[in-house]
Amino acid sequence: MLKVVPDELKNPEIGTSMVVVGSGMTFEVDHCGDGDELALCLHGFPEHSFSWRHQLPVLAEQGFTAWAPNLRGYGNTTRPAKLKDYALDKLVEDVAQRLSGESGQ
Length: 105
Hints:
The protein has 105 residues and is α+β, with helices and mostly antiparallel strands.
């Protein structure tokens, strides 16, 4: 597994899980909190879920379940080989599948 964030920089309040969605893609998801409402934090290009390391615990303290997935091609998330697999509709579909519970977690 690719190690992007050194252990000494990781916040012990933030967990990381590998989640498989209905399309067969595997996503690395940082998460914090167990509230009834979801705060979904999506990174941009060329960032990583680590970008949300300060916000995730604050959102959890406010009563949210906070997720920060690494999108296609980032961190330990699946890296499709074809450029067309990074089209906006594919990225939106990934998030929708995770939100609808079409996952192995």
